[in-house]
Amino acid sequence: MSFNNTQLQRLADEALNTGKACNGGANADYIPFLASVPSDLCAVSISCCDGTIIHSGDYDYCFALESISKVCSMSLAMQQKGAEQVREKIGAEPTGLPFNSVMALTVHQDKPLTPLVNAGAMSTVSFLDASDKESRWQMILDFQRKMMSQNVKLSNDVNTSEQETNFHNRAIAWLLYAAGNCFSDPMDACEVYTRQCSTLVSCDDLATLGGTLANGGINPVTKEKVIDPENVAPILAEMTMEGMYDYSGDWAFLVGLPSKSGVGGGVVAIVPGKMAIAGFSPPLDEAGNSVRAMAMIRYIANNLNLSVYSPS
Ligand code: DON
User: Fold this and answer.
1) Residue 1's pLDDT is what?
2) Is 277 helix (H, G, I), strand (E, B) or coil?
3) pLDDT digits (tens, 9 = 90+) for 148-158
4) Going by CA atoms, what residue is nearest to atom 11 of ligand 1?
5) Do 60 and 209 reside in the same domain of the chain?
6) 80 and 38, same structural domain?
7) How many domains does the chain have?
8) What percent of the chain is predicted at pLDDT more than 70?
9) 169 Cβ closer than 6 Å to some ligand 1 atom
10) I need a labelling partner for 219 at 20 to 30 A (CA). Which of 171, 204, 231, 288 fits?
11) Which atom of ligand 1 is nearest to the CA of 121?
12) Domain co-membership, 83 together with 175
């Protein structure tokens, strides 16, 4: 199936209306900053492999990347160590439990199972080749910028809000360390992980992150080769299994696209070889996924029959 930009713009506008009509969910409030973001913000952006970006709504409002940053660090770890090392050391299984679950660690001998939950993301950060905390952080920020744009920047407000309240993640980092699954100082890993969650991106940036994966590892806007093609399928497989947390199975059933959500309200879905669709709106469901972003992505994916499991 081929798409033209007029058709995609019409679908983006319709998707925005569909999203705005969804009233469920609530802003994340365990991070004080996120509770203060206006709940009615709503945007959808499509990044096509030719570099075109189609968008509707508040597409240039910048929001916290949060857990979607886990995709960038996982990709960077695969670039440095190879995909198989990431699978072996961290994992490629769904946990079937919330993104910050200690029980998931307990029942799996403190192995995080996937780079896409908090435990696995801190383990991934600690696994990167870096001599100290600041160089570990800088390489992650650089990689986020390569996958998205140079506009990506750390928000001191978000970061401070998270660093002052991340006691649960600190406990997880120590559990990982005790079991030999944190490969740097655990508090450094937790602090850098918290910073990577605290960068601000627009919905267009988020679509470009997905576009880089849809386009075989080449950023469709800058044309820079960011990820080796052999790492793209393992990244998308990890996203399929855990990208939407304990809603990942339903999401595969209903939409059929490797995706990732963040508690800042962003969701990005990849259509390999074609495009990426990003949605943003702060209210979340119980699993921590943006209600409106999911509705908008689902609207476009279903209309264009984009599921990777679809025979046509
Ligand atoms: O560590 C946390 O809890 C947050 N910085 C990120 C969690 C998150 O985005 C989960 N995604 N839906």
Assistant:
1) 60
2) strand
3) 999 999 999 99
4) 262
5) yes
6) no
7) 2
8) 99
9) yes
10) 288
11) 1
12) yes
- In this structure, the answer to whether residues 293 and 252 fall within a common structural domain is yes
Q: Is the pLDDT of residue 295 over 90?
A: yes
State whether the beta carbon of 263 lies less than 6 angstroms from ligand 1. Answer: yes
Burial of 81-109, coded b for 16+ CB within 10 Å and e otherwise, reads bebeebbebbbbebbebbbbbbebbeeee
The CATH number for 119's domain is 3.40.710.10
For ligand 1, whether the C-beta of 100 sits within 6 Å is yes
Helix axes 186-197, 156-163, angle to 10 degrees: 140
Ligand 1 touching residue 162 (CB < 6 A): yes
Range of the domain at 151: 68-198
Q: Which atom of ligand 1 is nearest to the CA of 197?
A: 5
Asked if the model's pLDDT at residue 79 lies above 90, the reply is yes
Mean pLDDT of 139-146: 98
Q: What is the pLDDT of residue 312?
A: 76
Q: Which atom belonging to ligand 1 lies closest to the Cα atom of 289? A: 12
Is any ligand 1 atom within 6 A of the Cβ of residue 124?
no
For 164-194, how does the pLDDT look when each residue is reduced to its tens digit (9 = 90+)?
A: 999 999 999 999 999 999 999 999 999 999 9
Whether residue 159 is predicted with pLDDT greater than 90 in this model: the reply is: yes
- Look up tokens 């890993």; give the residue: 189
> Among 31, 66, 198, which is best to mutate for testing ligand 1, by the most ligand atoms less than 8 A from CB?
66
Starting at the edge strand found earlier in the chain, the sheet holding 63-64 runs 63-64, 199-201, 153-154
Sheet hosting strand 259-261, strand order edge to edge:
53-57, 43-48, 275-280, 266-271, 259-261
Residue nearest to atom 1 of ligand 1 (CA): 118
**pLDDT tens profile 236-288:** 999 999 999 999 999 999 999 999 999 999 999 999 999 999 999 999 999 99
**Token pair 């806007």 in the structure block, residue:** 221
Residue 155 near ligand 1, beta carbon < 6 Å = no
248 CA distance to ligand 1 middle (Å): 16
